[in-house]
Specification:
3 copies of one chain form a homotrimer. By secondary structure, the first copy, chain A, is an alpha/beta fold. Helix content of chain A is about 25%, strand content about 25%. In chain A, helix 1 links the parallel strand 1 and strand 2.
Chain lengths: ~140, ~140, ~140
Amino acid sequence: MPLWKIYHPVDAFTADDKKGIAQALTGIYGRVMPKFYVGVVFQEVTEDNFYIGGEPHPRFIRIWVDHIARTFQSDEMRVNFFTYVNKLLAPFIADRGFDWELHVDETPFDLWTIQGYFPPREGTEDEKRWMAENKASARTHD
Amino acid sequence: MPLWKIYHPVDAFTADDKKGIAQALTGIYGRVMPKFYVGVVFQEVTEDNFYIGGEPHPRFIRIWVDHIARTFQSDEMRVNFFTYVNKLLAPFIADRGFDWELHVDETPFDLWTIQGYFPPREGTEDEKRWMAENKASARTHD
Amino acid sequence: MPLWKIYHPVDAFTADDKKGIAQALTGIYGRVMPKFYVGVVFQEVTEDNFYIGGEPHPRFIRIWVDHIARTFQSDEMRVNFFTYVNKLLAPFIADRGFDWELHVDETPFDLWTIQGYFPPREGTEDEKRWMAENKASARTHD
């Protein structure tokens, strides 16, 4: 459900760093939804392809995220989420002297399929099965 | 109008496969809108840049789509669309043993230009001309 | 706030062109918001990865934009924006014989952080400080 797209400078992250970020994010989302919902795509951007305020910025991490499975239900949840995510990313980004920006969009739950299935709604038995099995299967509810 | 972005493993598709997918998609949308609205961008993602559930996934196709020209007007149309699209993609994806996920966002019609023109509204004479000529030209209605 | 993503053919732009585009865009947005809000990412797409209407299109520029900090408050502002942007891009795109398409989505202001801070709301003293200093700092309002 969440698709994370991370634009970063060349050589900003090792393969271990990238796996570490993906696993930390999966740790957050995986408490309340199937782990395999969490997709993370890293993309190197060379300095001459990446501009902040009209100037090349060789130390910038730009992240955009699509949330599909859940929307924030309160301001408190929303603020906690961003606080937590920024803390989680700090060892990879802020603590290494990178600047960074992150924005999330919420896209329609009903316009989403995995393995051709419409994913189950939150809190259903189907969703529990998807979490327990960590894989997609036919939805049994409307 | 639809912009399809397809992240795929290295060497998942040949040039013919990619053209085949783009043409099949154009076949769907082109029945009701100008064919040149259909943009498809393929992007190879190496295994160490692509994580599902916190693990590298060497056989995953992740697709995101922006719909601009049309929004789904009923649940039936929506379900039919996804059913049809997943069937169309099967020979390229499911039948080859890839896993895949697809989500669509609907973005504002009025925040869209082609060749500097605001595209015509659905069902207008302008839109019929765009379809017939398969190219953009000045819109004559508000 | 605005994140511009520009897909373009290989060698469509020099580094100077890309900087020129980023600076022109920053010139537009920077009149009303901090300049460092403006992120522009260029991405080369080879001909066999880029399809318009089901065919490879070697001279196509496809741009998608996420607007976060502001939404259009009137039709007039909206039309002026697109007119202005298309004029600004003309020397790099239309005047060189490229075709191009551009669409904008508006994503939630409250789901956005820079350097871990929620950016200040429009018109606040905090925003004026961010503009004057051209950098992020703690927001002092709710």
